[in-house]
Amino acid sequence: MNLATVSSHAVRGELQLQAAKAAHGPTVLTHRHAAGAFHLSKPYWDGHTLMVQWINPTAGIFAGDVLRSEITVEPEASLLVTTPSATRIHTRMTADQPSGSQRQTFTVTEHGWLELQGEWLIPQRGSAFTQHTEVNLAAGAGLFYTELLAPGRVAHGEALEFASLEMKLRVHRDGQLLLQERLQANPDRLWMLCGKLGQPLFTATSVLSLPTSLTAVAKALRATLPNTADVNTGLTLLNEHVLVIRATGTSSLLIKRHLSQLRHELQPHHHCFTTSLRKL
Fold this sequence. Notes:
Elements: H1 3-9, E1 12-21, E2 27-35, E3 39-40, E4 44-45, E5 50-55, E6 60-61, E7 66-73, E8 78-82, E9 87-89, E10 100-108, E11 113-117, E12 121-123, E13 128-137, E14 142-149, E15 164-173, E16 176-185, E17 202-209, H2 215-224, E18 231-239, E19 242-249, H3 252-266
Parallel strand pairs: 1-7, 5-8, 6-9, 7-10, 8-11, 9-12, 10-13, 11-14, 13-15
Antiparallel strand pairs: 1-2, 3-5, 4-5, 14-17, 15-16, 17-19, 18-19
């Protein structure tokens, strides 16, 4: 492999966002930097939260691409970050090309609110990708973060044919490590992304943090969220204030319906869940 050729075509993307509450009330971006594979929409304040869309102009991540993002929400500020389309992990031209990678750090201070709702991550045939996500929450911080993972381009008859996939997630609250998980999938370990009958699954992993107790919320969600032959939902209360919700399903549409229902069920517990994700 010609390393010079790979590095000359690889994209280095950087995103830095800092949101703070303005003196007159609404949240504003006090720092904004986007380069490479990160393009940002014009922020929009809907009365509850500041909405920003991240758009990837390359329509995905290629071999050797490196994306780094840092998002910080200051006290009393409220920020929602979405993406308008799926992120494709593109097929490598040769098996010895390096993987694409993404490192994300999200920090929410006391009484801040951050919602991150990206679209599907779709690893294509022969692709390689690593993602490391670090979440740092103050004691009174609010967060709703969701990762969506597709098994591949299922409509093209291409599922679970990527070369390697590694996703790490760490969640700290008030300086304490509450969650550390790692998905490492390759052709020898694809069973973890399959159902009981071997069918490839779509997965949504959500992390919810609220200043108030989530004990009753978790109990209510267990009673209302779907658990059928096509969609399975599990909840883990990491402590009184942080909840992890994972859903697997046989189609992306079913998982999207699950997320829509989840946000609807959470509306009484935080006013920002009334914001439409389709507003921008």
